[in-house]
Amino acid sequence: MDLVVFLGLCLSCWFLLSLWNQSSRKGKLPPGPTPLPIIGNILQLDVKDISKSLSNLSKLYGPVFTLYLGLKPTVVLHGYEAVKEALIDLGEEFSGRGSFPVAERVNKGHGILFSNGKRWKEIRRFSLMTLRNFGMGKRSIEDRVQEEARCLVEELRKTNASPCDPTFILGCAPCNVICSIIFQNRFDYTDQTFLNLLEKFNENLRIMSSPWIQVCNNLPALIDYLPGSHNKMLKNFDYLKSYVLEKTKEHQESLDIDNPRDFIDCFLIKMEQEKHNQQSEFTFENLIAAVSDLFGAGTETTSTTLRYALLLLLKHPEVTAKVQEEIDRVIGRHRSPSMQDRSHMPYMDAVIHEIQRYTDIVPTNLPHAVTCDVKFRNYIIPKGTTILTSLTSVLYDAKEFHNPEVFDPGHFLDESGNFKKSDYFMAFSAGKRMCLGEGLARMELFLFLTTILQKFTLKSVVDPKDIDTTPAASGFGHVPPSYQLCFIPV
């Protein structure tokens, strides 16, 4: 027994000494709560709401502090000034992708979202250029979104004004837009393959926002050796990747180098152009991962925002009425909304921004990492250190948004009722790692919501004051609660 105690003390001393060596060798990390051996600070975090825990810790340690998530230090940035200083002012130094063990099991450093260095820069630059070029065919991206908005309206009409859960219908529209860009085709809303893909996207968001996944990301050994919902999530990702692989093989068989049809064709052509370059990042692995990234990110965050949007509009009928009055005045009942209308619809623009601010879909952002040793304020952050940026602390900053806990489109309107931009609006993150599809997402939110409110009156199945907008889960993302509503044609 004495030997066991002695070994335990030696292990603890070794652990603390290694932490001290790391800090003293590479510089001075920000202060933070004292970590426990092996598990770090996980017991000081509420895994049901990490964002809230970070806010509480910032009151003790300030806007820049260190947590140990397992054995590794993570620097947390809380508040607009700290987040801006890192992601914008020192954008290159903070442009790495930080540790996200569950996702690393899926993409293994390939693709866009979870790659680093030269690979990330080249694949992101290519993807951004290709997405921007998709007016290259007969229709621009706006044409595609408008067409999908019309399909969405027809699908909502089929509900016959009966109560329905809008989850899958609202997922179909943005998913079809991204499918038309990467696969060159859209699905019928009743297609079983389509519904299977959407179910796996929704299920993975719920799992990734669960307390268990927060534990797995802190103690990644659990992923490989214990049963749990993470295995279901990994299985869902495998299903998605197998579908992308199948579509890619179809593209290879019918590829016309002179007439690229979509993102996959463009990537395959780039692979052919660089086939003799041994250092090329345009590989089959990066193609599958990049398409999977675009497919998932282009579907889930927008559809989740749309679901939350309708819930908030049900909760606040006075806001909905004001939006519909603006739609009637600017567009009317028969013409399809276009992006040109947005500049004439300040209230609608403010409502969409407030929906994104208030729902705070990805509260702690995807983790960043520093690409070199960085002097940040009075600290030295060693190269490779994971950085967590609290987007909640920016979107809910009381200095910028009066009563941030209240849903109020006035947060984005000036005294004359004109739309008011805010540097604190970081719903798409900021800096070099900000959302690749921000422009597309903004377009979809405006055109889909405007078209729905142009064609339907939203009717809640419960009294609006009884609607609870509290997220069903608050981990990686804020997952809206389930609800039903009626779409009444106007």
From TrEMBL:
Keyword check for Cell cycle: no
Compartments (UniProt record): Endoplasmic reticulum membrane; Microsome membrane
Coiled-coil region: none
PROSITE patterns: CYTOCHROME_P450
GO biological process: epoxygenase P450 pathway; xenobiotic catabolic process
Name of the featured protein: unspecific monooxygenase
EC numbers, comma separated: 1.14.14.1
Signal peptide: 1-18
Primary residence: endoplasmic reticulum
A GO term from the CC aspect: endoplasmic reticulum membrane
One of the record's GO molecular function terms: iron ion binding
Recorded name of the encoding gene: CYP2C114
Organism expressing this protein natively: Equus caballus
Requisite cofactors: heme
Residues given in the record as heme binding sites: C435
InterPro entries on file: Cyt_P450 (IPR001128), Cyt_P450_CS (IPR017972), Cyt_P450_E_grp-I (IPR002401), Cyt_P450_sf (IPR036396), Cytochrome_P450_fam2 (IPR050182)
Alphabetic keyword roster: Endoplasmic reticulum, Heme, Iron, Membrane, Metal-binding, Microsome, Monooxygenase, Oxidoreductase, Signal
